[in-house]
TrEMBL record:
<dbReference type="Pfam" id="PF00271">
    <property type="entry name" value="Helicase_C"/>
</dbReference>
<dbReference type="InterPro" id="IPR007527">
    <property type="entry name" value="Znf_SWIM"/>
</dbReference>
<keyword id="KW-0347">Helicase</keyword>
<keyword id="KW-0067">ATP-binding</keyword>
<dbReference type="InterPro" id="IPR001650">
    <property type="entry name" value="Helicase_C-like"/>
</dbReference>
<dbReference type="GO" id="GO:0008270">
    <property type="term" value="F:zinc ion binding"/>
</dbReference>
<dbReference type="InterPro" id="IPR027417">
    <property type="entry name" value="P-loop_NTPase"/>
</dbReference>
<keyword id="KW-0378">Hydrolase</keyword>
<dbReference type="InterPro" id="IPR014001">
    <property type="entry name" value="Helicase_ATP-bd"/>
</dbReference>
<keyword id="KW-0863">Zinc-finger</keyword>
<dbReference type="InterPro" id="IPR049730">
    <property type="entry name" value="SNF2/RAD54-like_C"/>
</dbReference>
<dbReference type="InterPro" id="IPR038718">
    <property type="entry name" value="SNF2-like_sf"/>
</dbReference>
<dbReference type="GO" id="GO:0016787">
    <property type="term" value="F:hydrolase activity"/>
</dbReference>
<feature type="domain" description="Helicase ATP-binding">
    <location>
        <begin position="764"/>
        <end position="940"/>
    </location>
</feature>
<keyword id="KW-0547">Nucleotide-binding</keyword>
<dbReference type="InterPro" id="IPR000330">
    <property type="entry name" value="SNF2_N"/>
</dbReference>
<keyword id="KW-0479">Metal-binding</keyword>
Amino acid sequence: MSDSTAFPAIPVTAAEIIRQVGHGAYSRGQKYMRAGNVARYNYDDDARILTGVVTGNDVTPYSTNITFPAVKTPGSLAFSARCTCPVRTDCKHAVALMLTAIDRADKARKALTSLSPTWRSTPTHDGDGAPQVPEDFKKRLEEFGVYAASQLENRAEDSAENLEDLALLNEEKLSKVPAWRRSLSHTLAARPEFGSDHARRASAALDLSFHVGTKFALGNKSKIPQVSIQARPLMMGARGKWIKGGLSWENFQRDLSRSMSSHTLYPEHERWFAEFYSVVRPWQSAYTSHRDWVSLTAVNSSLLWRVLEKARAIGLPILLDGEEINFSLADATSVELLVEPLAEAGKTDDTGLSLNPVLRWGRYSIPAEHCHKLGEPRMGFVALGGRAQARYVQSAESAKWSITRKPALDLVEESLEETTPAEGSPARPEWMNEATNIVFIPLADPLDPVAESLATSGAIEVPARDKESFFAEYYPVLSRTVHLHTVNHSVELPPVRSPQLVLTVNFEEENSHTARTAWHWEYPTHPLATEDTDEDAIEILPALGYPGEDHQDIRDTKFEYRVLKEVKVIRPAVPFTRNTYEGWATRTLLEDSLPRYREIDGVRIDFEGTVPEFKELGEQPEITVSVESTGDRDWFGLGITIKMGEWYVPFAKVFEALNAGKTHLLLGDGSYFALDRPEFMKLQELLREASSLRDKEAPLQISRHQVGMWEELEELAAETETVDAWDRQVGALLNVTNGPAPELPVGLHAELRPYQVEGFQWLNFLWEHELGGILADDMGLGKTVQTIALFARAKELWTHHQDREPTERFAPFLVVAPTSVVPNWEREIKKFAPELSVATICESQNKSKKPLARTWMDADVVVTSYALFRIDEEAYVDAGFQQPWNGLILDEAQFVKNPKTKAHRIARDIPARFKLAVTGTPMENNLMELWSMFSIVAPGLFPSARRFKDYYASPIEGGEDKKALPRLRQRIRPLMKRRTKDLVAADLPEKNDVRVDVPLAPAHRRAYDTALQRERKKVLGLLEDMDKNRFTVFQSLTTMRRMALDASLIDQEQYGSVASSKLDYLEENLPEIVADGHRALIFSQFTTYLKKVAERLDSLGITYLYLDGSTRDRARVLEAFELGNAPIFLISLKAGGFGLNLTSADYCFIMDPWWNPAAEQQAVDRVHRIGQTRNVMVYRLVSAGTIEEKVMDLKDSKAALFDAVVDEGQFFSPSLTAEQVRDLLTSSEE
């Protein structure tokens, strides 16, 4: 937020808002603003961006972002609005946000005018007559966030009388205001004024009404009237009375478009009614209107209790027929039977029994029969008293009832008076007081039919003569359904024997780890525990009942449900039928489950047979890793064995158990060990990787190229067992730096730097052990001379080899390079190893009219181009089969990065002792390019492209697997050598890399914006299927890149007169650069643009040279530049990215950024490399406010991928996603 103004106003008027969004959206947004729907907002005056959060009809608020243009032109938009609501743009939320910002800025200014009325009437002056700002007034201003100068300069004395306009003083009269003060000023300006909508909000209330059905109504079988409770919303009127005020339940439906705030109720009351209505609405009858009244009688949702409790918490009044009553919500309870002595006339020694269904809370109870039903089926009760009871009786009498339910709350009172409370206990339950009129009582559990019948039947009297029959026949059954209790032991209630759930565990064989289990219930034939009871007499029933079974009537379903539920808490999937446990499952049953079952009241465990013993092995595992020959040069059999105690366990068993999700492995004698050990986890990870990279049916093997994986296996193993072939190749590679270093060949006429010597030694090792690799040194570090040193070394070893046959011919090395680089290889070999004979292939076999084999018959090195390599595939491959090439060298190996090309297939299949990829950019866009190169030089490292993509590429590029990146580095490290320019930093001059943001000329900007809207409309609909429409999408992106560079590249006839800012930049700077004796390279991806640069140079009279892919005599052009024939060299980015050494130049201009950072870096490295003696200036020209800015950001992400994998940097995803395309085609002002 800017600090330049005290109260910045947004640059838009109400008229402009209406003109852009229309009267409808403006009116709706104005209502939102007045209702206070803007939760927060922030205006950045410098960026001209207004952001905020606006509440709407949805539960989640909307985020709104509005950008105002720096310059308004006729017909242009006054603002650009984006919102997360369904409308997306120019919506009511955007209108509300802008109107709120305007309103608060206005209030903040006006507030200043009322700060000091004293100063307005009696201003003071200094000696010069200028009005002074009194200290008290300055302090008041500072409290509000404004700093006033000591005097009002250049103000006439008579103008000081009109200090009400103080807030409108020019901004330069006020000191800068800190951002935090200004923000708080705007926030405080939002406080509601007296008489505002917010201040006039009213209270709401829930009005209840009782209805009693007519006694003689059809279907009414009740003997005592049941109350039906209805409810409606009311609000407080202007005269202090509860009124309907137009309220209905429709006002609180979330799915209606109308504003809930139209009746200005308290927000917490509005939210409560919306929640209450959402709970009761599903239970309303479809045949009656519930616009004004809803019925609570049929509601069967426990959410009702939570909503009623919330009403008490927020202080929402509860009314009965428009008058406030004392309402309460009781604690949840259940129906019980209170058993009391029944005094019979003429009997004193023996009494009958009175069975009273009650709702009980400790020592307090209410007769259930006098409470009203709530819910269908019943989910609770309603107890009435006082005025509520009177209203119920009145309704019952109107419905012709002569008898009514007693006031239940009054019965609680009577019970209290007849009972002596314990010392310190309250006089009544916490949820009621003397004035309570109505209590809602939740049920802790649903009532079964027996309890429901008891709740409505009232007290039951059992005469003394029938007591014995009651206890023998009914009492055991009743006790299974409801809890029976008595007061002060006035009746002796005999204990009832409960059934038992029995689990039988059978072991048929000794030392067997197989257990067979069965569950059943045992019911006592005589449940009452007396002295004469036969405790062994039982009935056996299945653990799970079924309809029509024998003895179903004796089941205690409530008890069974409780016991079975507790068992399932321990083992949710336990089968209550016959079951078999084997192996580790048996140990889990015996040691984990059964001890917990025993703790359940009502469960018994019986064993049959000998119970096995289990013992945990706590020793440290000893791991042995072995390899064995398979007859395949590249692949070796892999074996892993684990010793635990006296047991030797093949890791295949452990691997299988880990993959199955097991936590322990059980051995034959009952001993076991845990699988969650770090060494097992690591082994599992390694073997999963090994198996995932090959066919799943293949045996466990390891390739000689998978050196990094072997290193990790060795670290885990206590012992390794290998074969000689493995030791010679892999073992030696791991110790390449410790072994005897090969001497530099005598025939090498070059002084190698230390890092180059190390590279030569590494290449020599790969060649000697017939391995392959990638030499990925930075451009300019001498990859070519290191490779030539290997050629010379190989020829010397062959020459001095005593055992070779006299007729044996030296197998030549085959170098494949871009056409333009072929002469360079010939020149470098003759320079650094003149004793080697070189055969340079410059034309195809068909064109030369002679067999290629004759051309290279006596050659030590054969150099050809990728084009000729493809054309004469058969000749190169046949030569390899007759005598394998000593080595295949793929220079600028990115030329074979696409595995679908013919060149890649030939390079992969051609027979050669070893294969080497030479490139400074082993990957440019994605990880599959890296796989492509390794599939040629080390095919056993990652055998399957699909599996490499699934295991490495997708997890790394998608950021899904943090371990995948370091694991990939570990795998490729032994077979890829990369050094950066940091090694020779001291020998290189300074390089200054400067980004130049070039603003577009006005006409160019208009043309660009028009094209952007056109391409954006065309592309955005295609992004749902990015893969299918990739070509069209990239075509549009290329169009916008060309438009950002020079509009005439798109249409010369239409835009030929539009100025190119970048050409103007070159025109301003190149003459001075050339005059100072500097030489410059100018790169562009577009050859048509390079020709426009050439035209501009012609007009300036500056000589130049030109190189692109169509240039025929490339070597002559390069030589001419090195000889100084021209100070400027125009080069296409693709043609100049490799094979050039242009250290005579010291300036480099990249005219158009590309999202392939490697291509740009290669171009720059033509200048900044060994041999450069002057400081290098690199200028990257970026068209401001265009797609080129977005390309620069995207390029950074691709550079991060390269650094992460090749240079071990950090990384985030480089994939060009649909969202990135949207961003590329977004205006810089959006």
